[in-house]
């Protein structure tokens, strides 16, 4: 029963498709580390992340380097 509820909650969570559109060259080191923490690293790479405040904060920090789409 608990597993079914957990699976339903997991499916109900929104996801974000994050695409890196600019290079991290000449960016501060913390922004490069944030890009790596998001699972990116090269231009035009895409990842899907769960929409939560932690991920939104990371996206805000590197918003000039990424494109975000809600899924």
Explain how this protein is built:
By secondary structure, the chain is of the alpha+beta class. It contains 3 helices and 3 strands, in the order αβαβαβ. It has a 3-stranded antiparallel beta sheet, with no helix packed on it. The radius of gyration is 14 Å and the shape is elongated. The mean pLDDT is 90.
Total strands: 3
Trace the largest sheet across and list its strands.
Answer: 2-1-3
The fraction of residues assigned to DSSP E strands is 15-25%
Shape: elongated
The Rg value, from CA coordinates, equals 14 Å
* Helix and strand run: HEHEHE
- Total of DSSP H or I helical runs spanning 4+ residues: 3
Given as residue ranges, the uncertain stretches (5+ residues, pLDDT < 50) are: none
Query: Which class best fits the helix and strand makeup?
Result: alpha+beta
CATH superfamily: Ribosomal protein L30/L7
Q: Using the 3D structure, state the CATH architecture.
A: 2-Layer Sandwich
Number of domains: 1
Largest sheet, if any? 3 strands, antiparallel
Helix coverage percent: 40-55%
**Which CATH class is shown?**
Alpha Beta
The CATH topology name reads Ribosomal Protein L30, Chain: A
Rounded to the nearest angstrom, the distance between the terminal CA atoms is 27 Å
């Amino acid at each position: 029963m608990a597993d079914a509820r957990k699976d339903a909650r997991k499916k109900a969570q929104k996801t974000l498709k994050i695409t890196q559109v600019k290079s991290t060259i000449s960016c501060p080191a913390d922004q490069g580390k944030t890009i790596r923490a998001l699972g990116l690293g090269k231009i035009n790479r895409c990842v899907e992340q769960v929409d939560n405040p932690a991920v939104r904060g990371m996206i805000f920090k590197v918003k000039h380097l990424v494109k975000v789409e809600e899924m």
